[in-house]
Amino acid sequence: MAPGGLLHLATDWADYAAHMLAVLDAAPGWSNCVGAGMAAPRPAWRIATRFEQRGLRQGHGVWDFLYRHQAD
What we know:
This protein is of the alpha+beta class.
């Protein structure tokens, strides 16, 4: 990815969210846009999928992560 590129990930699985956070926070060249160890608020531009809506009905949380690619 080009420097300055934005990676957006979202999940309703807590274990997957924790894994993504651990891997990306430790990955060289990536910066968490809201701070290490933090999930981002759901961006207004992200449409809620039917999977997300189902997860919310089942009481799952939803985690969004925004990472910026830094120059090497």
